[in-house]
UniProtKB/TrEMBL annotation:
Protein name stated in the entry: VOC family protein
Family matches, as SUPFAM superfamilies: Glyoxalase/Bleomycin resistance protein/Dihydroxybiphenyl dioxygenase (SSF54593)
Signal peptide span: none
Species, as recorded: Georgenia subflava
Record-linked PANTHER family: CONSERVED PROTEIN, HYPOTHETICAL FUSION PROTEIN
Classification via Gene3D superfamilies: 2,3-Dihydroxybiphenyl 1,2-Dioxygenase, domain 1
InterPro entries in UniProt: Glyas_Bleomycin-R_OHBP_Dase, Glyoxalase_6, VOC_core
Domain VOC: 5-122
Amino acid sequence: MPQLSLSATVLDARDPRGLAHFYRDLLDWPVSTDEDGWVMQRDPAGGAGLSFQREQLHVAPTWPAEDGREQMQLHLDIHVDDLETAVARAVALGARLASFQPQEHVRVMLDPEGHPFCLFVE
C-alpha cells in the first residue's frame, strides 16, 4: 500500500491571493507558495495546510443550506481559546458573522469569498 498523507484543503476563490492573506492573518500561517492563481500556506506546527486556487465562476455557498441554492461542500473548524475575541478579529480581517448560529459555543463565520468556517471553544 502506498504511503498517503493529507497535504492541504484547497478553497476556490475569485481572488486566491486575497483569500490566502485573510487566512494568513487569521491563523498566523506563512504563505509558502504565491503564484498567479495559486497560493499555499502551511501550518508552522505541522499537519495539513490550506491552498487557494483561482476559480472565476466561484459562487459562495448558502448557509444554512437552501433547496436549489449553492450548497456548502465543506467548512473549516478552527479551535480558539476566546470566542468573542476571535470573532472580533475575524470580522476586522474581513469575515462576516453568519445570521444563523446553531450552537452556543460555536460561531459560524463567512470568509471574504463566502466560505463558511467555524470558530469554536471546547
